[in-house]
Structures are given as structure tokens and as C-alpha cells.
Design brief:
The complex is a heterodimer. A 3-stranded antiparallel sheet of chain A has the order 2-1-3. Helices cover about 60% and strands about 20% of the residues of chain A. The longest helix of chain A is centred in the N-terminal third of the chain and has 16 residues. Chain B is built from 6 helices and 3 strands. Chain B has a 3-stranded antiparallel sheet with strand order 1-2-3. In chain B, helix 1 runs antiparallel to helix 3 and helix 1 packs across helix 4. The longest helix of chain B is centred in the middle third of the chain and has 29 residues. Chain B is globular and about 50 Å long. The chains are: A alpha+beta, B mainly alpha. The interface between A and B is medium-sized, with 22 and 27 residues.
Chain lengths: ~90, ~160
């Protein structure tokens, strides 16, 4: 029993600690400059970093734009959806 | 129709004919076709839990409906029954509403006609394309043209 409890506790702890990833996926409609603009506006990144992430989306089909706590990740995804970008949330 | 940048980081759209009004009114007509679906489409690559579906999704879809409603009302308000001409202003304050509505219109056309898979050969034989597809291409390019002006002159 104890062992099981310990394993469960460890597993829960691992799940809680692992960061959540915010991804932006490529799409055929949104303009490259617009994607850069939205990344800056929502994530607060400077133009250089936003452009780099936008180019990753363009070339690789997706980019991880943020990682961290679930609540904040959900907030970012909601904002990105509001700006009509294809975004998703994944547990790392 | 003429689109010109203003001194106050906006753009003016000068409407010169009935056809111009029809083109502008089609933004809301096309955009509204994704009403209630777009939020779900944007989250297609993630698992949406019940909380997301119950609380977040309706908010997102509501914001999209507001964009369409706003643009539709702006066009209606600018149109006078006594003349074919008119003027619309897009400023930093309302640019997100306009850009969002235009994007919805382009997303709807892309969803319905898969315009992005058209290639150079299709455009070389544009006249031979299906009439509905041709209309979709022309409208999508028109919306894109306005969006490019907004990015260049208002959102930069």
C-alpha cells in the first residue's frame, strides 16, 4: 500500500511539474506579418523573437511559443484563438 | 474604391459605386458562414476539456460574432440612401474588429473552396474555373488586399 501511495504521489508530482506547451500551427490564411504581430501582442515578445517563431511556424508547420503553468498556457491559447491563429496546448 | 492611409495611422476607404458597397457587404456575409464553428476549428489540434467547451469556446465564438456584427453595422452606417458614394475609416481603435472580420471571411472561403491548393496553372486558366470558385478567389484577394493595407498602415 505504501509503495503504491508513493508511486501515485510521485506520478502526480511529475504530472504537475511538467510544463505545458503552447504551440502555434501553420495555416493557409493568416499572413506572416500578422502572425508576428499577434505573437508580439499576446506573448509580449520583441519583434526579433516573434519573427523567429513565426518563421519556425512557416517552415516546420508549428512552433512552441511558450511553456509553463497550465493556467497561463490556457490563457495564451485562448488569446491566440481570439486572434484566429491555430494554437494548441500540450503537456510536455 | 480607393484605399488611402491617413495622417493618424489609419486608412480611409472611399466608396465610389454600388458595386463597392456590395463588395464590402460581402465581408460580413462570408465571415458569418463560420459562425459558431471557428472557435472549434481553431482548437482542432488540442484536447478541449469540458470547461474549455463550456466557458472558453462560447467567449471566443462571441468575439468573432461581434467582429462580424461591428463591420456590418459600420458599413450600414456609412451608406446613405441618397448617394452611391461614401467613406469608411479604419483606425488603430477599430482595426482588430475589421481585420478579424476580414480574416473570418477568408477562412470561410478557404474552408469552402480550398483556395490555397490552387496553383499557377489554375491561375493561368482562370477563365475556365468554376464560376463559384472564381468568385471566391476574387473575393479572397480583395479581403487580403484590405488586410495588407491594415497591416502596413495601421497595425505596424
Amino acid at each position: 500500500m505504501r509503495n503504491n501511495h508513493t508511486q501515485t504521489a510521485e506520478k502526480t508530482s511529475t504530472q504537475t511539474d511538467s510544463p505545458w506547451l503552447v504551440l502555434i500551427h501553420d495555416d493557409p490564411v493568416n499572413l506572416m506579418d500578422y502572425v508576428t504581430h499577434v505573437i508580439q501582442k499576446v506573448m509580449g515578445y520583441n519583434a526579433e523573437k516573434a519573427t523567429e517563431l513565426m518563421m519556425q511556424v512557416h517552415h516546420n508547420g508549428k512552433a512552441i511559443v511558450w511553456s509553463g503553468q497550465k493556467e497561463k498556457a490556457e490563457f495564451y491559447v485562448q488569446q491566440l484563438h481570439t486572434y484566429q491563429l491555430n494554437a494548441s496546448l500540450e503537456n510536455a | 474604391m480607393k484605399i488611402t492611409p491617413t495622417l493618424h495611422k489609419g486608412i480611409n476607404i472611399d466608396i465610389e459605386s454600388l458595386l463597392d458597397w456590395v463588395k464590402l457587404e460581402s465581408i460580413a456575409v462570408d465571415g458569418a458562414r463560420l459562425e459558431g464553428k471557428l472557435g472549434n476549428n481553431l482548437g482542432a489540434k488540442m484536447h478541449m476539456d469540458e470547461d474549455w467547451k463550456s466557458y472558453v469556446l462560447p467567449d471566443i465564438d462571441h468575439s468573432f460574432s461581434e467582429q462580424i456584427k461591428y463591420v456590418s453595422q459600420e458599413i450600414k452606417a456609412a451608406r446613405s440612401p441618397s448617394t452611391e458614394t461614401g467613406e469608411l475609416q479604419i483606425t488603430p481603435e477599430n482595426v482588430d474588429m475589421w481585420y478579424g472580420a476580414l480574416n473570418q471571411a477568408r477562412l470561410a472561403l478557404e474552408t469552402e473552396h480550398a483556395l490555397s491548393i490552387l496553383n499557377e496553372e489554375d491561375f493561368d486558366h482562370f477563365e475556365e474555373l468554376d464560376e463559384e470558385l472564381k468568385r471566391a478567389v476574387v473575393k479572397s484577394h480583395f479581403y487580403l488586399f484590405i488586410q495588407s493595407h491594415l497591416l502596413q498602415h495601421v497595425m505596424c
